[in-house]
Design goal:
344 residues, alpha/beta, Rossmann fold, Dihydrodipicolinate Reductase, domain 2, eight-stranded mixed sheet, binds nicotinamide-adenine-dinucleotide
């Protein structure tokens, strides 16, 4: 059993913990919280041992004052684990990396950190083999993961694709009242945006530029894409759709026939199929909007920002631990375990 520590039990951390708990080859050895707040109750309910993100006695003692059993600080947790999944807020990675190196433990960071932190970025379908037995990696952001899911199979079929895309980004997560805009459309004025560049950290052969705007929704991101395929690509609209239907973690569905015209209905679909927190790990592509004209492929896809990276973290654990060298095999084990998981 791979012993997994989760450092930071927030939006991503609580989901990664449950996804680890669902697997037969790994277990949650502990999760950290900064202090005794509401989120601790979920960890207690799930019976995940609770640790403090700090080693300071004063902070650790605060937990018992609020009636929580805290087993110690982060250093103690790292001593017990084989690997740590860092789910702290973005830009804390540098500080935490020192702790992981000090403990000599394998580590996975999230997309809020820069590629340079580990020098290795990861997406299951793009570069699983490159991460085998590595000491550390960064699972790329929700947007980069979403782009990779549909672009990598296109690249694998006809090398030499060139992509222009616009990321229509959710303003905030549903549980986040701090961010906006709430009544504006906010263009990201750094052009091109970092999203496209980030895809090249996992698949450098894909040429891609992106623009981004934030809009007042909490539900999902939508990507609007134009992909230039190489001459003699040999693909048709139908064969592209077939390619994506055969690709793990991609859903291609006719939005008009199924009455799923917007991200609101996509999220309703994920609630209907009984996903925890209403999550959708798959990328959703509107089938009728996939259109190949000459060598230009047009499509829209929707990304559930809080959850598409969750199963990727599980595959990344297997890659770093060197226990599964085949990405498709790992993906099917991960997804099957998550689909039958019935944790409280
Ligand atoms: P979050 O704010 O919901 O959760 C972060 C948790 O880490 C909180 O519980 C916080 O108390 C805790 N924390 C604070 N300081 C810490 C420290 N020093 N060490 C460990 N934990 C600490 O954030 P999130 O949305 O879960 O994001 C986590 C990471 O995942 C970020 O890098 C983010 O960019 C990335 N990510 C987020 C999303 C998303 O939609 N929320 C999607 C993909 C990737």
């Amino acid at each position: 059993m791979i012993k997994v520590a989760i450092n930071g039990y927030g939006t991503i951390g609580k989901r990664v913990a449950d996804a680890v708990d669902a697997q037969d080859d790994m277990e949650v050895i502990g999760v950290t919280k900064t202090g005794p707040n509401f989120g601790c109750q979920l960890a207690v309910k799930k019976q995940y041992p609770l640790y403090c993100t700090s080693d300071e006695e004063e902070k650790i003692n605060l937990f018992s004052e609020q009636g929580y059993i805290c087993h110690g600080g982060i250093t103690k947790l790292l001593e017990l684990a084989d690997i740590v999944v860092d789910c702290s807020p973005g830009k804390m990675g540098k500080m935490n990396l020192e702790k992981y190196k000090g403990a000599g433990i394998k580590h996975i960071f999230q997309g809020g950190e820069k590629h340079e932190l580990t020098g290795l970025s990861y997406t299951s379908c793009a570069n699983h083999k490159a991460a085998l037995n590595a000491n550390g990696a960064r699972v790329v952001s929700c947007n980069t993961t979403g782009l990779s899911r549909t672009l990598v199979p296109l690249h694998d079929n006809c090398e030499g694709i060139s992509v222009e895309c616009t990321m229509i980004r959710r303003a905030a997560d549903p549980g986040d009242s701090q961010r906006g805009p709430i009544n504006a459309i906010k263009p990201v004025l750094k052009v091109p945006s970092h999203h496209g560049i980030d895809v090249m950290t996992v698949k450098p052969e894909i040429k891609i530029n992106s623009l981004a705007v934030a809009v007042p929704t909490t539900l999902m991101h939508v990507h609007s894409l134009v992909v230039e395929l190489p001459p003699n690509h040999g693909l048709t609209t139908e064969s592209v759709i077939k390619l994506w239907k055969e690709q793990p973690r991609v859903i291609v569905m006719n939005g008009t026939e199924n009455r799923i015209p917007t991200t609101a209905e996509v999220m309703e679909l994920s609630r209907d199929i009984g996903r925890k927190w209403g999550d959708l790990h798959e990328i959703f592509v509107w089938e009728e909007a996939v259109s190949l004209k000459g060598n230009k492929l047009y499509y829209f896809q929707a990304v559930h920002q809080e959850s598409d990276v969750i199963p990727e973290n599980i595959d990344c654990i297997r890659a770093l631990m060197g226990t599964n060298s085949d990405w498709k095999n790992s993906v099917s084990i991960t997804d099957e375990a998550i689909s039958r998981y019935n944790g409280i």
